[in-house]
Write a structure and sequence with these properties.
The complex is a heterodimer of chains A (113) and B (116). Chain A is mainly β and 113 residues long. Helix content of chain A is 0%, strand content 46%. Chain A is globular. The termini of chain A are far apart. Chain B has 116 residues and is mainly beta. Chain B contains no helices and eleven strands. In chain B, a hairpin with a 5-residue loop joins strand 7 and strand 8. Chain B is globular. In chain B, 34% of the residues are buried. Classes of the chains: A mainly beta (113), B mainly beta (116). Chain A binds chain B through residues 32, 34, 36, 41-46, 49, 87, 93-94, 97-106, and chain B through 4, 31, 33, 35, 40-45, 48, 50, 56, 58-59, 90, 92, 94-95, 102-110.
């Protein structure tokens, strides 16, 4: 599975957009980009995923560059409850490990009032 | 739906003791996973299962055993606990044959285990 690089931490003002970057320069053609987050002491929560097109759901938007070597997760109006560690993960949907996720250290997002 | 539940929520063991962590899901998912998370680290996969009666090793399987006798349950066993197994353990499930979706893993609330 491709390795990802994320900043260790970021701050965002409440009500503003939070833009979380992720580099995945070795991504393969059949690998998707997933985002999960983990609020303190809780189990990780799925946010969004994409292959090459930009995606949007009720939680966030995912922007993937045309060369697919990087992506950005956008929380359009961050709230204090969005304070969490955000994980960017790349992997194929089906593979020898049947969908296992490889978590790095993620980005600690702090939303401040 | 309760989603993914884990039992117990907390446990303290002495070195050498054994215990079993129970994970249950009510979403009829085919795949189930056990992860561990140490302080300041991401999750690491211990074992996983792609269906009832099947299990496979993940990244850090040593010292653990698993069983999937029923589709909805995935058990993680520690036969002889060691202080290095002090961690938070998360169970997850994914993939429904009905929907064909395998993108999203649903996680349980975690079990905090301390081995003294």
């Amino acid at each position: 599975d491709a390795k990802t690089t994320q900043p260790t931490s970021m701050d965002c003002a409440e009500g503003r957009a939070a833009n979380l970057p992720c580099n995945h320069s070795t991504i393969s053609g059949n690998e998707y980009v997933y985002w999960y987050r983990q609020i303190h002491s809780q189990g990780p929560q799925y946010i969004i995923h994409g292959l090459k097109n930009n995606e949007t759901n009720e939680m966030a938007s995912l922007i993937i560059t045309e060369d697919r070597k990087s992506s950005t997760l956008i929380l359009p109006h961050a709230t204090l409850r969005d304070t969490a560690v955000y994980y960017c993960i790349v992997r194929a949907i089906y593979g020898g490990s049947q969908g296992n996720l490889i978590f790095g250290k993620g980005t600690k997002l702090s939303v401040k009032p | 739906n309760a989603g993914v539940t884990q039992t117990p929520k907390f446990r303290v063991l002495k070195t050498g003791q054994s215990m079993t962590l129970l994970c249950a899901q009510d979403m009829n998912h085919e795949y189930m996973y056990w992860y561990r998370q140490d302080p300041g680290m991401g999750l690491r996969l211990i074992h996983y299962s792609v269906g009832e009666g099947t299990t496979a090793k993940g990244e850090v399987p040593d010292g653990y055993n698993v069983s999937r006798l029923k589709k909805q349950n995935f058990l993680l066993g520690l036969e002889s606990a060691a202080p290095s197994q002090t961690s938070v353990y998360f169970c997850a499930s994914s993939y429904s044959r009905r929907t064909g979706q395998a993108y999203e893993q649903y996680f349980g609330p975690g079990t905090r285990l301390t081995v003294t």
